[in-house]
């Protein structure tokens, strides 16, 4: 893995450990010569992960929609800042640039980005590892919801298992390096006419 995209909050949240783990993730990526791709902002967990990578000499690529740049949240110390026109273009660019994805704690935006990447993987549009760093049990409830989706027949077990989970950065990166995408496709098939 040469580049990992990190999705996370533009705020710090209520627990200091979120910021600490965001910074630690950035540093670990840099120390392992993995470039960071992220949303380009200098605020919240987004700023912390970027600063962590930069403090360890890492390369950091930010992808920021123009309308957010005008709000003066662009991180000015990045290796590269790519400006795009829309949130959708941002996700597409971040996907194009990376070899895998990690989600840190976040809100609606983080979940939307995470689930779009999972959906693309489920549809076979990419075969990249997708992971959540489950800081202090932040994603425990989400994991339970995914189990419910599976038990109710709305999500295949093989697709649920695409999401890698750990509370340890090193373990998560190990899982990502050893990820094998499922060979079972989504049930949608072309008509055989």
From TrEMBL:
Membrane-spanning ranges: none
UniProt keyword annotations, A-Z: Cytokinin biosynthesis, Hydrolase
InterPro entries cross-referenced by the UniProt entry: LOG, LOG_fam
SUPFAM superfamilies: MCP/YpsA-like
Any GO CC annotation of this UniProt entry: cytosol
EC number: 3.2.2.n1
Keyword Ribosomal protein among UniProt keywords: no
One Gene Ontology biological process: cytokinin biosynthetic process
Alphabetized GO MF terms: AMP nucleosidase activity
Family: Belongs to the LOG family.
Designated name of the protein: Cytokinin riboside 5'-monophosphate phosphoribohydrolase
Native source species: Flavobacterium phragmitis
